[in-house]
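@channel sequence for tomorrow's demo:
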Amino acid sequence: MEDRKEQGYNIICGRNPVLEAVRSGREIDRLLVAHGVNGGSVTAIIAKCKQRGILIKEVSPQKLDYYCSGANHQGVAVLFAEQEYCSVEDILNYAKEREEKPFIIVCDEIEDPHNLGAIIRTAECCGVHGIIIPKRRSASLNATVAKSASGALEYMRVARVTNIPNTIDMLKENGVWVFGADMDGEDFEKTDFNCPCALVIGNEGKGIGTLTAKKCDQIVSLPMFGKINSLNASVAAGVLMYEVVRKRRS
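structure tokens (generated this afternoon):
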């Protein structure tokens, strides 16, 4: 098992994320179940794995703790090949296939895997076509991200790119209007999101990079009424995503 992990295998843990991973048809190497855990959704997970011919292995709770890096695994986890990333073209083509205006989230150096997972979860609920992350200085699609996404990662296209500003240029060349979320921008409620659009969400501490901000077509802001002047990155992303949904439905 240690050898498999070193060779690029990853872990999804937690009952709901595991169940969604199995249901989605993802190629899974094996299901790990902690000794003494059974009943409820675990029974459904085991039955689905047997139906798909997935190897099932019982392990100690301590061993499962180790492989899940301390995440709340609820007694179950699946071992699978490292998450495959798609391309930006794949995301644009997916929107085209659905005959919908592209709706894309660009995460500019989101480093907290819990934040990235929460953004993916909300994005899936909002009908986002895909998420773009940088290869450097960003959380990757690890077990913590998968757990925080609560199964949404199984249905969300994620592209990993070398250069965010260059990718923004490419999106604009394909008719996508790029909105950066940052302070001192236009009121988000007065912004017309009913267009092919991408929302850029910046780093938890630094916000959007200077060059990235310059590449955006427009900077939008959320009003602050308390004593602090910023929201958690995933919370801000959620508010803006639902504003896009609201504008497109009105």
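heads up for whoever presents: The chain has two domains: 2-81, 88-249.
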